[in-house]
Amino acid sequence: MIITIANNKGGVGKSTLAVHLAAWLTEQGHTVTLADCDTQQSSSVWIREAMPKVETVVLSSPSEILNELPVLAREADFVVADGPGSNTETSRALLLRADFAIVPCKASMLEVRALAQATQVLREARDIRGGRPDAVIVLNMVGKNYRLTKDMKDAAVSLQLPLAQTHMILRQIYADAPGQAAVAWQLGSRAREAADEVNQLFREILPQAYRQQGRSKRTVTAAS
Ligand SMILES: Nc1ncnc2c1ncn2[C@@H]1O[C@H](COP(=O)(O)OP(=O)(O)OP(=O)(O)O)[C@@H](O)[C@H]1O
Ligand SMILES: [Mg+2]
Fold first, then answer.
1. What's the CATH number for 2-204?
2. What does the pLDDT read at residue 135?
């Protein structure tokens, strides 16, 4: 399965989500490749330090993405592709190949309004591909006392994209994690809330990837 983290806006949490998703999937017992499609290469450097079990590959052009993603998807259970902040052609290539797109969005009305533009390429890909890839909006950097306003819910509905019920709270630990060569839940006791939140988010949006702790993939298959 190819999962891309897509939003043509910069700094919304794509790399943070990509690295935590790749690490979470690995901990569920899956084989994972992180395809870093951003010239800054921040997520591949980060995941190599935080979780060396994850394979990494840098794909630096739209044609490389179109050609290589299906090959990588045959070799791993999941390919997580981190996209760039603004290159439309790179995003288009990713969305033409992805099975699932996660669209992080900062939790403010201005950012949600800008989503129509930032998800234009996603809508084009879904139009061409008969509704694929499936996609979900994930609100990120949400203030602790924040309440989702009706305006914001309406904006998501008008884009015909579901909004994940679990949000990622604005937490210093997410910002600290890359500097510590870690994912948030590797950072000791102060990481517990972030760990629970990330686990809940990924279980919600990728229920088929969740494995109960202590049960290997083989056990699950044999028992089901
Ligand atoms: N939930 C959060 N709480 C606090 N800081 C966060 C959170 N999510 C992301 N950040 C921080 O916000 C900044 C932008 O995040 P990130 O680099 O993941 O975004 P991006 O969409 O990949 O950016 P770019 O478009 O430049 O690639 C980073 O400094 C990151 O550590
Ligand atoms: Mg990034």
1. 3.40.50.300
2. 96
Cα(50)–Cα(44) distance, integer angstroms: 10
Q: Could you give the C-alpha distances from 110 to 45, 139, 146, 196, in angstroms and in order?
A: 31, 13, 15, 28
Instruction: Give the span between the Cα atoms of 220 and 67, in whole angstroms.
Output: 33
Q: What's the pTM?
A: 0.93
Ligand 1 site, residue 15, Cβ cutoff 6 A: yes
How far, in whole angstroms, is CA 190 from its chain's centroid?
A: 23
Residue 216: the pLDDT is: 45
- Ligand 1 binding pocket includes 90 (Cβ within 6 Å): no
**pLDDT value at residue 213:** 62
Report residue 159's pLDDT band, with 50, 70 and 90 as the boundaries. confident
Atom 11 of ligand 1, residue of closest alpha carbon: 175
* Short-list 205, 224, 209, 217, CA closest to 101: 205
Q: Which residues contact 79 (CB under 8 A, 6 or more apart)?
A: 1, 2, 3, 32, 33, 34, 35, 69, 72, 73
* Percentage of the chain modeled with pLDDT above 90: 73
C-beta 62 within 6 A of ligand 1: no
**Does the beta carbon of 184 lie inside 6 Å of ligand 1?**
no
State which of 12, 16, 41, 141 you would mutate to test the pocket of ligand 1, scoring each by most atoms of that ligand within 8 A of its C-beta: 16
Smallest CA-to-CA distance from 118 within 78, 156, 174 is with 156
Q: Where are the domains of the chain?
A: 2-204
Cα–Cα distance list, 187 to 50, 69, 80, 144 (Å): 11, 32, 23, 20
For residue 211, give both structure tokens.
Answer: 């494995």
